[in-house]
Amino acid sequence: MTLLFLILVKPLFVLIHGACADPAPLVKVCSLQSSFEPGFVAAGDYIIGGIFPLHYNQEMPDLNSTYRPPAVKCNGFDPRAFRWAQTMRLAVEEINQSKKLLSNHTLGYKIFDSCAYPLTGQRAALAMMNGLAEAESPMCHGASPLLAIIGESGSAQSIVVSRILQPFRIPMISYFSSCACLSDRRKYPTFFRVIPNDDYQVKAIAQLLLRFHWTWVGLVRGDHEYGRFAVQGLLRELKGTGVCVAYQEMIPLLYNRQRALEIMQVEANVVVVFSAEGEMTPFLKDYMMLNITGIQWVASEAWVTASVFAGREFYPYLGGTIGFGIRQGHIRGLRSYLETVDPQTYPSNTLVQELWGALYGFAYNVYKNAHVVCLCPKLQHYLQEVAFNIGGEEVNFDLKGDSIPYYDIINWQRGPGGNIEFVNIGLFDGTKAAGMELVIEEEKIVLVSICSASCHPGSRKAVRRGEPVCCFDCVPCDTGKISNQTDAIDCTVCPEDFWSNTDRTLCIPKKVEFLTYDSLGIALTAIAVVGACITIAVLAVFLHNRNTAIVRLNNSELSFFILLSLTLCFLCALVFIGEPTPWSCMLRHTAFSITFSLCISCILGKTLVVLAVFTSTRPGNNLMKWLGPMQQRAIISTCTLLQVIICAAWLIDAPPFPSRNTLYEHSKIVLECSVGSSLAFWCVLGYIGLLACMCFILAFLARKLPGNFNEAKYITFSMLIFCAVWLAFIPAYISSPGKYADAVETFAILASSFGLLFCLFAPKCFIILLQPEKNTKQHLMGKK
């Protein structure tokens, strides 16, 4: 270590000694002991230096003191720091092209890679004060016209570099170092920065913890002044707030995996980290190897916009991270400038992919720094407030060399490709009154739940009353609503013709339902066909035996009309099965009502004839002359015609039509025939009921006719069954959902048709087919 110190400090000693002694003999004895060439260099009348961590990790050399140790080997290319360096180059080129800033002079630069390591930063500072290129300039030949140095990133590096520059009164303007310790003007009189002091950041983090009621937290810091002062400041802010610190741990500067694994075993769901991305990278890789999830990370500004953690492999472990980043700004021309980078020198393909997802906060700071250097004479007055206007923006330095505290609140969220996106969700304004500094758009935020596990797709978050926003219940989406993302705030209603699946994650087309040829439809069809066939068979029996007594006495013409109308009644039930169409909807109710009206009208005519025949034997009763065949046909035609007129008016005014009913069951679309006019529908049924009641009353009056002629009794019983079926139909129809309403109506048609068929014709067919000896007028009239 002693040898390394001498190697690093010797150039400074030789430079100072050479400035005070006779230069002639020094040329013979002084020589460059080691070389540290800049990454980028440009000549100019004046030079500004830049120190950036172009690599975020380092490999220490073997220090066995038996030979000169090699330089520190840098590992892990950092696209973010590379952008900062390119931003400085762009700013210098803009300054040289401006006629207002440096007229008649040019500005050059020397940019070094510090590898995020203080000793490498020290070497860069010493090399910076030498000539433009070390290999071409012997030591002590004379210092370059160095105006200022833009750097460093980490506070530990800035402390070292600032102390090196202090004797030479060379200003150093940092774009990143935020340690509160650097505000001490006695120790660091030439240090300035355009990033807020960490005192403001820890105040902001403390307010964030209180805002979300995170009262049990862990603290992790890097092994440097930045981490130490930040943790001390946060502990001060949390005093008396009720927030308890579960542990304080440090990531070793020389990374020790065993020590890191010990840190990860400590229980705490919220972890605040003050560290740079170089130290965080190996730590997080080991953390991911252990497959630890469910941690809510709170990031300091040093790594909250680190693009090295933006890959999709990091999201399961770092998604939801929240922290405070430097205010972003737009740098015109930076994107096109970055695209000119030599792809052979730096991995620009990877670089360009990662650059656009990152914010321009620190790059914008570098850009401002380069312009501030042009106003360098003002920076010589170290103990006064300084203000510049750069591109319309006010840049201020207070008496401590600090800038005004503004932070963007950054939240790590999943991007379209699964990678991490840095989303701005709010602002911390240190100039506002106490308690008013923090502004968060909570509807944009995505956090790792501390109280509750994440809500899976198919559910939504329901915040518990009186508890923090990270404490919630997962409520399944209601039927007809879905959520297809994790931690959904609300469920989305499916479109009208769609419904949610079982998991409530997808809207699927609703099932279309109607009385089709499924098991129920096939059963009803079979019953209707069988009924029609039986009716036709009975008609055939009657036609074959039309000259027998039982057929003649039962008014064969009316019996044939009744059988034909019953056949049509059975067949019209088939119209109710199948997908509703405009024609089928109109035919359903009209065909049913007209055929039943015809059937009941025939039964009414037959009842009147029976009543007239058996009352005409009374003296003075000549009712039969008014009920001849012509009058019977007139009664049937008139009664049927009235129903036809009602149906015609119905079809003209408000015909039935197919409709898509979603009220019975929201998960289905029920195709049904809307009646069009409820009044017409119930008028049709009421008219059939009126005819049936008239038949029942007349048949009841004729129930005690003489002999074995029981036709009036059969009509009475058939009308009882008919009326019972249709009275039961009304409540069943109204309460039946969907296709079952059509099934109920079809069943009522079939049941009433079978009731009429069997009550009126079964006894007659029994005599005709099985007891032909009783098929005589004498037997039927009760005569021996």
From TrEMBL:
How this chain sits in the membrane, per its record, is:
Multi-pass membrane protein
**One term under GO cellular component:** plasma membrane
Spell out the subcellular localization from the entry. Cell membrane
Q: Which Pfam families has this protein been placed in?
A: 7tm_3 (PF00003), ANF_receptor (PF01094), NCD3G (PF07562)
Q: Which residues cross the membrane?
A: 520-543, 558-578, 590-614, 634-652, 679-702, 714-734, 746-770
Task: State the family it belongs to.
Answer: Belongs to the G-protein coupled receptor 3 family.
Q: Which residues form the signal peptide?
A: 1-21
Q: What InterPro entries is this protein classified in? A: ANF_lig-bd_rcpt, GPCR_3, GPCR_3_9-Cys_dom, GPCR_3_9-Cys_sf, GPCR_3_C, GPCR_3_Ca_sens_rcpt-rel, GPCR_3_CS, GPCR_3_vmron_rcpt_2
Q: What is this protein called?
A: Olfactory receptor C family, v3
